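FIELD: query
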Amino acid sequence: MNQIGKFQLRKVLGKGASATVYLALDTFSGNEVALKVLDSGIVRSPEFDRTTTMQFMTEASLAGKLSHPHIVSIIEASVSEESGYIALEYVPGGDLSQYTTPGKLLAPEDAIQIAFKCCGALDYAFRQGIVHRDIKPANILVVRGTDIKVSDFGAAFLRAETGTQLESIGSPSYMSPEQAQGEPLDYRSDMFTLGVVLYELFTGERPFVASTLDDLFGKIIGEMPATPSSLRPELGTEIDDILLRMTAKKPEERYSTWADLALDIAKVGRLSVYQSMIRDSEKFLALKNVRLLGQLDDSELWELVHAGKWLRVPPRVVLVREGETGASLFFLGSGHAKVTRQGRLLNVLDAGDCVGEMAYIKEGGILRQATVETMTDVLVVELEREMVDKVSLKCRHQLSLALMHSLVDRLSLADERLVGAG
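FIELD: result
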């Protein structure tokens, strides 16, 4: 079997109890995909566990429904009573399990960035009505560096489509107490499970280890793990507080939202000794706080994070000079800057403000009408037209609408001032 439909099989990437995953070429698009093929022989076997079929069908049903930069795209699916396949985005960098053993651990600041992105992905999934239920290192794939994608939604509980949950799904070492006890699950179970993964990512050890399944579940339900910093002192107590709260025994003792958890993780990232570096979490939160971009969803904000040129700028540095031609748009992520014309103060910009809307919208740019100079240390992102042209059409459309609204508001304010002056 060298081809399935339009997919040309290249090599086997992995094999499970009921399916084989191939690296395949989509002969229509020319893109490489990971093709998960359900084994028809096993499906026809009378001993076959029908739960596996349900998991495959669940994942297939999500084709085209999950669009997030840190979730593996499910491109298409074809399922029959006897067999089927799911075409997934191919992620070449392996999974997080390669970084969970002593001697191969990531630097804490890199693990923090991965934690932040996992939170965003699982928050997005939850807002689509999905509880993953099987978060583990093998299901978090690495694109490159700290860029990750959550995968394998076959065990997911889809709240909008069914009122029942199969409790036998999940990986025992990463189960939450409520999952181990067969209780109903919500996003806080995923939060506990992610906490176990991050504990292992930060320390190289699992928080709950036992020789039998009963003993393992007993520890998950009733024992507190060692503090991460006792296993790796360089982590500090901030990481301890976050991971122990994520793995609290009762769901109500964990974070109330993914956003609250993400903010705490981002704060720890800013406390890193690598303060000169601009981490992805800091960039994302900077754009998240821009009022003008309030209509963009998280996926679109991440596109702008990667499209922008980010800088830390000291005081008394000119970002934009009047009389010079420019076409870039600037957003202030932190700090203050002043706007002057011919030496006269026009405005003071704060974190979340932007400058350069007209220059950005006008093809080829325009002569800058004012000078923008930093007053304090500033985090700033510059968006150039040629880089933004590479993001998705939806993202560009939302950005253009936001800038148009901003310009309309400014013109209305200018008209009111002219009428008042008259």
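FIELD: remark
Residues 393-421 form the longest helix (29 residues).
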